[in-house]
Design goal:
single chain; 656 residues; alpha+beta; Heat Shock Protein 90; Ribosomal Protein S5, domain 2; Rossmann fold; 4 domains; 21% strand; binds adenosine-5'-diphosphate
């Protein structure tokens, strides 16, 4: 189908990004070449993968390559690839707009920060590598032909707010991007990108590892020679153009470790992970034995946006003897390590491995086991050697690591020592379970935790009162996944893990223990009838009202029995199944509290006092609010509160 010439407007956000790009004070402008080469390399990968199932997309014997074509007279630089190419719609979608929404605030933020340092972030965050061409070019043209298609597409723009799209003349698949270069401005970071030396050094710096040849034609003067190849002293010379490959193409993980610079690893990481930041950690190793493979792994500096996007693709690049056979291969990583980036290069894999045959491949399962062990081992070393850095890791990825508890016994044994928790023992430092156990009090045989939405909620929970008095440390679990972790873990070093709000706990003061016990017995007797009544009044919401040993200053709290499900777990379950049966909790009250003492006096005076119902509601509502839980019936709580307020103001109001 023919394509008619059309001028289209950039989206507002795209235009803003382009403006930032054009006026950028960022001096490291040469990275535009890295971005365009990276796109070309991706396009070559895509074609190679598509051709596995669709061989007619490539000509027999066709070599995939990236070609740089500088023209110093016209002051242009063209980057060619014979990759997958794009159709008209793809050009509009990929080149004319930014795929991500909600970018406005981010653009503002970056604009304020100033283009200088923020340029790599801008490029990385918005996936706008292509636009970086406008840092060095006044005008950019793109010619592309999608593999298997007939109609080529031409796109051009001077970034002035519009771009033009029309039918192109390209006859073979792939993409050519031509930059009409801005004048050389060394202070502004614009070199002469038509010079061989410049191109060669930029390619070496950023793109040396690219797996396809990055070539260009070099002008050579060939002196005239005789038949034997001996140069004639007075002969003329002829000009010839010869191909020169600028990158080593040698996979970085196959080069001796001592030869690879940090920077090279970082550039490689940025290319494979589409990240703009250097990685936080790196791990390189070789496995020999039943399976032979090499691996180079990275942990990003920041949590990727899609860490919790359901179904987001993850995995490592899979190579079979130096040839990439699959991008994002998840068979070599467990899901809880989905943030790990990198490559695995195996000598035991067939080149035609497909996603369908992956699962059956025994090597991959073995690789996954080994990689998991290696990564967890690295984290364990890090924890031992550099806790501050480990904490950085934990803040970004701890939440994913926790998912590994329960995956398998081996994994669990390795992950548990790496888990960090907030705790009542320290308001800032996180603790491991091991450290918790080392601080346990004499006579304490259980690891206690409390779950809730935030530290301030759990810290101030009435459930904490008895533990604080007794000096028992409590772990504060505020991630929804923590509930799952403690459920799976249940025992650590022979000590049970138990919620602070679960079952009956002996938290009585230690002094005069006998006296305490006797006092409790008395209270139980005195309050028995009142508790029965309160239980009846609240029977829709709670299954029992009982005396608490957890409370010192608050009047009431909610707890569960030993084998009940935690309220957080119940909430999660109900999200999945709204009809799941509702579980009632236990209202524990503090008989020494003034409110309870007053309530009992009222009850003894008139067992049918209608105000008792309001107080029951208030106690229950109080306990719910204390844990930050949603109130099922705020209306009746408020009614009860209103009644009590009216009585209180009337009693305390001065005479009119
Ligand atoms: P990113 O590469 O981060 O996605 P870019 O702005 O560099 O962002 O490119 C946007 C998209 O345009 C790419 O994801 C790809 O689909 C397409 N694209 C860019 N360059 C090429 C190319 N040389 N060949 C084929 N498609 C390309």
């Amino acid at each position: 189908m023919a394509i008619s010439r059309e001028t289209r407007k950039f989206e507002a956000e795209t235009k803003q990004l382009l403006d930032l790009m054009i006026h950028s004070l960022y001096t490291n402008k040469e990275i535009f070449l890295r971005e365009l080469i990276s796109n070309a390399s991706d396009a070559l990968d895509k074609l190679r993968f598509s051709a596995l199932t669709n061989p007619e997309l490539m000509k027999a014997g066709e070599e995939l390559e990236i070609r740089l074509e500088p023209d110093s007279d016209k002051r242009t630089l063209t980057i060619h690839d014979n990759g997958i190419g794009m159709g008209r719609k793809e050009v509009i979608d990929n080149i004319g707009s930014i795929a991500r929404s909600g970018t406005q605030e981010q653009i503002e933020r970056l604009r304020k920060k100033g283009g200088k340092e923020s340029m790599p972030e801008l490029i990385g965050r918005f996936g706008v590598g292509f636009y970086s061409a406008f840092m060095v070019a006044e005008k950019v043209e793109l010619d592309t032909l999608k593999a298997g298609a007939k109609t080529a597409v031409h796109w051009e723009s001077d970034a002035g707010g519009t771009y033009t799209i029309s039918e192109g003349r390209k006859r073979s698949h792939g993409t050519s991007v031509t930059l009409h270069l801005k004048p050389v401005d060394r202070d502004g970071g614009i070199e002469d990108y038509t010079r061989e030396w410049t191109l060669s050094s930029v390619v070496k710096r950023y793109s040396n590892f690219i797996g396809y040849p990055i070539r260009h034609k070099v002008r050579m003067e060939k002196p005239e020679a005789d038949e034997k190849g001996i140069v004639k002293p007075d002969g003329k010379s002829t000009i010839v153009f010869e191909d020169k490959t600028l990158n080593s193409m040698k996979p970085i993980w196959t080069r001796p470790e001592s030869e690879v610079e940090n920077e090279e690893y970082n550039e490689f990481y940025k290319h494979i992970a589409s990240d703009w930041k250097d990685p936080m950690l790196r791990l390189r190793f070789k496995a020999e034995g039943i399976s032979e493979y090499e691996s180079l792994l990275f942990i990003p500096a920041e949590r990727p946006r899609d860490l919790h996007t359901w179904g987001a693709k993850y995995g490592l690049q899979l190579y079979a003897r130096r040839v990439m056979v699959m991008d994002k291969c998840d068979a070599v990583l467990p899901e809880f390590l989905r943030f790990v980036r990198g490559v695995v290069d195996s000598s035991d894999l067939p080149l035609n491995i497909s996603r369908q045959t992956l699962q059956e491949n025994r090597h991959l399962a073995r690789i996954q086991k080994f990689l998991t062990k290696k990564v967890l081992g690295m984290l364990s070393d890090l924890y031992r050697e550099d806790q501050a850095k480990y904490l950085d890791f934990w803040k970004q990825f701890g939440i994913a690591l926790k998912e590994g508890v329960g995956v398998g016994a081996d994994e669990q044994d390795r992950i548990v020592p790496l888990l960090l928790f907030e705790s009542s023992a320290d308001s800032e430092r996180l603790t491991t379970l091991k450290d918790y156990v080392s601080r346990m009090k004499d006579g304490q045989d259980t690891i206690y935790y409390i779950t809730g939405e935030s530290r301030s909620i759990v810290e101030n929970s009435p459930l904490m009162e008895g533990f604080n008095r007794k000096g028992y440390e409590v772990l504060f679990l505020t991630d929804p996944i923590d509930e799952f972790v403690v459920d799976r873990l249940s025992v650590f070093e022979g000590k049970n893990l138990r919620s602070a709000g679960q079952g009956e706990v002996d938290l009585e003061g230690t002094e005069g223990e006998e006296g305490e016990k006797a006092k409790r017995k008395d209270q139980e007797q005195q309050f028995n009838d009142l508790f029965n009544l309160l239980g009846k009044l609240l029977e829709e919401s709670v299954k029992q009202v009982r005396l608490s040993s957890r409370l010192t200053t608050s009047p009431a709290c909610l707890t569960i029995d030993n084998d009940d499900m935690s309220p957080q777990m119940e909430r999660m379950l109900r999200m999945a199944d709204p009809d799941a049966p509702k579980q009632k909790r236990i209202l524990e009250v503090n008989a020494s509290h003034e409110v309870l003492r007053g309530l009992r006096a009222r009850f003894e005076k008139d067992k049918a006092d209608p105000a008792l119902k309001s107080y029951a509601e208030l106690l229950y509502g109080y306990a719910l609010l204390a844990e930050g839980a949603e109130m099922k019936d705020p209306g009746s709580f408020n009614k009860a509160l209103e009644g009590v307020m009216i009585r209180a103001v009337q009693e305390t109001a001065p005479e009119a």
